[in-house]
Amino acid sequence: MKNKRIIIVAGILLLIFVGYQLISNKIKQNREWLVFQEERLQQKKIKEMKDQTEKIIEEAKKSGLYIKDHYKTATTTIEVNGYQIESIRLVSNDQYETPFSSKINILKDGEYLFNSEDQERCYAFNRNDGETSLIDNTDSLKRAVRDITGNSIPELLIFGWSGGAHCCYQNYIVELSNPLNILFDLDTGDNAISFEDLNGDGVMEIKTNEDIFAYWNVSYVGSPMPSVILSLKDGKYRADPTFMKNPKPTDTEIQKAADEVISWSGDGSNGYPTVAWKYALDLIYSGNINSAKIYVDLAWKNDSPGEFKTKEGFWNELNEQIKESIYYTDLEDYFNL
Ligand SMILES: [Ca+2]
Ligand SMILES: [Ca+2]
Prior knowledge:
alpha+beta; five-stranded antiparallel β-sheet; 8 helices; binds calcium ion
């Protein structure tokens, strides 16, 4: 009787053991099968992607647009005044992505007469001009051709932007005359340019801002960027004091500005993000050096001179810095520092 019970228990245990083995083997097989299926699926996806890429490259090669695996050039040309204006963009195979770099050239009878610098993004006319296609640049190029000088000869306006949070705009204005005449070719740093006919004579003036005081003894946000205006003189755009000059402020106005200064250093303690010398620079760029000197005398803080150390140190450094301006030769006499 006892032996019989032992045999039954052993039998049950054996059944449980065999059952467990069978189930666990089945689970293992299922797992392996799933992994296998997943790998197969992944390989299939990779193959599909590879095939697709190969197809795009083949097509690009056939059309002569192939550069390297993932990019191709998109060229648009328009004809104005006997010139061919050509926009060349390096775009990804997905035409809706941002262009990686671009260039604008002017040709006559196949000969290159003008090439813009390679820019990360080089825009004809305006980088916010609502382009719908990065491949066909016709509309944008057409908008870039305007007569801004009022002499019935159109100009090509090009704005090159290097990309990034700050810096740099390389601007060109090319008169499509015979021969070509470059009216403007300047790196205006962080500042874009805009057009306005300020004196109503039918010739556009250019409005922009000084860039050399960016990061000068202060962070970028606190950097003053005084207004600069350029006008067309002898076939070139130059900074023009006639348009930049403003009436001098009253003594009360200068005193009020000086009273608001808490610190002279650019550490942010002076009503961040404005620095104390912003007002002085605005006065210098509006042709009021004497008012600027009065202001600095009134507002100077001996207890917070920053890196300038002394008031004389401030003026010396300012004198050196302003010479870096791309407009300095046009404005040296006007600044009268
Ligand atoms: Ca013109
Ligand atoms: Ca004008």
